[in-house]
Amino acid sequence: MCLTGSTGVVMAPTVFEGTASTIAMIVLLLEFLMLRSALLRAQVRLYAAQSTVVSILAAVIAHGRSLPELYVLAVISFALKAVLVPWVISRMMRDSATEIAGSGVLGVASEVIVSIGVATFGFFAVGALHIHSPVLPSAALSLAVAVVLVSFVLMIVRRDVISQSIGFFSLENGVSLASLVVAAGMPLILEVAFLFDLLVAVVVFGILMRTHHRHAESLSTADLTSLRD
Fold this sequence. Notes:
Elements: E1 3-4, E2 10-11, H1 15-36, H2 40-64, H3 69-93, H4 108-128, H5 138-157, H6 161-182, H7 188-216
Antiparallel strand pairs: 1-2
Helix pairs in contact: 1-2, 1-5, 1-6, 2-3, 2-6, 3-7, 4-5, 5-6, 6-7
């Protein structure tokens, strides 16, 4: 993405901006891989990889914009989202023999096409707003919104608790990416508080997984539609 200076001259993006945009694109691609993956454990590993990439982006911004507190955030984010959360989900999956993600209302190819359309809409809709950030190029914010929208698609189309929880957790990664774009300099205590909100979500989803598996002896949520009758 090229930038236009105050004199009207088109300037090439810096190495820092190019690196940040590339990392944001990797986060989005990993979200697509989660949607495409049929194995639950593969989804967990992809979420861990995505969380690692978001943590790397925080470290890149800390170095590029001289924000040392973001190094602390990167370490905490990696420990919590790339290590602890995947470990907790994997421990919960040991009680179930289910390895295949629940099929959704659409086929995998159709789900990917829908998610591409949703991501494209989010990317260009944010771009049309001409939002500029002194921290990251605006393309990174557009990619963050695309990640959030694809996460919603993952939560909606899949019919198993693991995929839905992974969709929710990866949605938080998209929100983290957006916050790094627009408010990387916010107080560290506020950013850490957002991460502890994720811990609460892990506990809630953990209780949901165990309770649902105990009663239904399955991780599929398809049978829950009978409650509407």
